Amino acid sequence: MFRTAPVVILSVVLSIAISGCQPANPSASGGPAVKNSSEYILPRIDPKKEEGIVAPGTDVAVSVTVRNQTAGKVSMIWLEESSGSRIHYHDIAPGSEVSQDTWEGHFWLILDKDEKALGIYRTPDRNGVIVVK
Fold first, then answer.
1. Which domains does the chain have, with CATH numbers?
2. pTM, two decimal places
3. What pLDDT digit, counting tens, does each position of 71-94 carry?
């Protein structure tokens, strides 16, 4: 019976050391909520540069999330990799977000409700977020 006690105590000590004695959800203890610091925000490319955009062929699968922080609907358009043709994927309501599986290097165009180009975004080699304001 006493031979397993050191193992149990060691497990508890390691568990406390690893967690840093912090609750799993800081906001549950009245502390501030922790924002996901690993979130990568994609930089905006001027939509005037749309003509001639061609994406390289890659085999790195990623996901891009579009967050619509505007007061109107926006559309998520894929710029087809070889021709640059516009291919509609999603309409995103105000205050909503949509995630889309894609490939590194693909270009996405965001249009407002009047089909005015708001920005172009190139997917990086990791998951990313497009914030539309």
1. 1-34 (no CATH), 47-132 (2.60.40.780)
2. 0.71
3. 999 999 999 988 899 999 999 999
